[in-house]
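Case study 2.
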Amino acid sequence: MANEEITTINENLEAIVVKRTLSLEESNRELDTFLYRASHDLRSPLSSILGLCHIGEKMPVGELVERIQAVVLKMDRMLKKLIETSEISQEARKVARFCVREAIGEVQTRLATQITASGVEFHVDCQDNIQLRSSAPLVKTILAHLVENALYFSRLRSTDHARVEVKAEAEGNTVLLTVYDNGVGIDNGVRTDVFNMFFIGHESSKGSGLGLYVARKAAQALEGRIDVASEPGHYARFTVVLPVGA
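Prediction:
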């Protein structure tokens, strides 16, 4: 009996070592990708600013300031996403019970300017009694990135009937958060890659390729996951599955 217990313990330890080794290898690959891409993506806007400075004397001051501002804002958005990535582990420890409807409302308020400017029909379906014991900051980060993504791609198909829907529902010991848009959808060939770091899945995309990556990492830190379903040319639906008491 003792030998069997020792064998079982050893097998469990080996499984843990294998799992942690694979996790470490994945982290190292992500770090390599991050260092390579971040250095190039940060250098690009700096080069653009230097170029504008060289030709600044030949441009109207207003146009020069506007173009420099656009480059700086793009760099700022990417840096904010990189900061979010670095803070995921820390934020995951801030666990408390909160109302999901209120969290969605805060995200909607934060993105109100973008929603209004886009002209997209924005709809929320969530009962007031749905609650999570999780990290509210990370849940809002996940929703914000998914909604921003949906707002942009819903308009690529049609600016007249663009629609984004955010839905929350309790299902057993989990809460499902769904963000749907009736936009261009995701090509079947790249659907499995959309959560990869710096991945750009559409030729018209203007993002850094970090939004969905940050959303997935945050969901994983909360012991959840994000599933994606899409019909190219018609819709995309991202579903976040989170344990009620992560």
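Helices lie at 2-55, 61-92, 100-110, 112-118, 136-157, 211-221.
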